[in-house]
Request: fold
Amino acid sequence: MILKDSEFGDIIVRKNTLSSGIKFSVSTSGRLAMSVPKSTPNFLIKRLLDQSRKQIRTKLPVKNPETQRARDTKKQLLKKSAKNYLPYRLDFYAKKYNYTYTSLRLSHANTRWGSRSSTGTISLNIGLMNLPEPVRDYVILHELAHINHMNHSAAFWAEVSKHDPNYKRHRKVLKMFTPGV
Ligand SMILES: [Zn+2]
Reply:
């Protein structure tokens, strides 16, 4: 459930069977999240929120409503450009270097640029669209190389370097960015 609040914007309320108390946190979107026991009535949730305002203000990095909305818009645009670009780029390199993968999943995790599952699905982070193209290509080639090597062995890196001779530099640049939107 989403609670609209004039100070904190959209508040994500999770009613949880297992939680015994009330817990505040900040979601990846910068929104305030509240976890309360399942049986908590809505009027009580609002009262608990009011009682905790001061504490939230000083302790939690909640983004203001305008920033939350700006982030949503940014994410939407990023998602759209990722959808229009990453599947084709992945396909291009897969064909060029003879790789087969099962499917592509676009992710927006905060910690990973990409991954490859044992079932052959490749995940690419929509945040890749914010990276310089050679670095973005490196991530794609890295995940494709995992099709033949499920680890980061010397043989794996040899394969990556065959397709991206500058991969060491690209890795370094990649570390200067974080995937979170
Ligand atoms: Zn890897």
